[in-house]
Records
---
Amino acid sequence: MHAFENLDVFGGVVSLDFANTVDGRATEQPVEYLHTYADLAAWSAYMGMIDDATAERLGRLDGGASLDQALSLREAIFQVFRAIGRGEPAPVAELDEVRLRYAEAVAAARLSPGDDGTFGWRFEGDDPDRAWWPIAVDAVRLLTGGPLDRIKVCAAPAGCVGLFLDTSKNRSRRWCTMDGCGVDAKVKRQATRRRTAR
């Protein structure tokens, strides 16, 4: 079984999925999925940002400092997009953190054409930071190109606080996943109705 087999991937873009690698942030027992640098490299491969062979090579490196930078980026992404999802101003210090990591990433990248003919940032080599560089690029792409009005925070009262891009036609999605927080919310509503009816 893959290490991330039980991790729900529901963000819609890599940067939001990265923010969601802490599950149940507002609960008494949040779940952390990235304990080591090898976890980060494996997650990057799981999300298709690097291939498995690169992840294996990177996972053998001493990437402690890179993991620290990645987790700092993750928390900045979470704070920025949670604010946006709630219609609040994005926090300045966290925006600066995202900008800093983006600048580091593109400084190490090269522009090259993709299969669709457009150009994009490509990363090569075995620098430990390669595991998070594409995340920083994705976060800035979302910030500068949107759609920011479709970013939402899971409405589950249990403390999920998951971030996602609402791609529903009528923008009615409220929960990170219907079979997770959506079901929990419905069960709680039914229990409340039953208590009220009594």
Note: The chain has one domain: 14-197.
---
Amino acid sequence: MVQNSLDRTDYRILREIQANGRISMVELSRRVNLTKTPCAERVKRLESSGVIKGYYAALDPVAVAAGHVVMVQVQLSRTTEKELEEFNAAVQHVPEIQSCMMMAGGFDYLLKIRTRDIASYRELLGTAISQLPHVMQTHTYVVMEVVKDEVTLSMSDSRGKRIK
């Protein structure tokens, strides 16, 4: 499903589900002014088309021993398609890497990593991060305070108008 095929009701459904993934279909229907069956059909269509990729619980990182955050710049020794694919595949197997983004500029990747503390990060750096395929150099930046860390998306229609 492409963005152009989403209508205002779809966006309202998505906004409500982002705010509360456990919302009942009855309550969702009420909030978006649809009856239950058409609302459920729209949700199923959004799921099957891949617009809704899944549901999850937002956990308190400190409560689950993952309150320490670092950002790591990674420079690879080579950036041919093969090396990039090997690196991309390998980061999928390191659960502490919360996000991995390929960058344009002075380094190749930016990793967001969550661990229990600096000692556990140091161990991870030596045993996993530096062992990822083709890693030539890393630079670690310790996050002192997380000011904003959203997982929800701001949505705009096909004309770029922000949907509230």
Note: The radius of gyration is 20 Å.
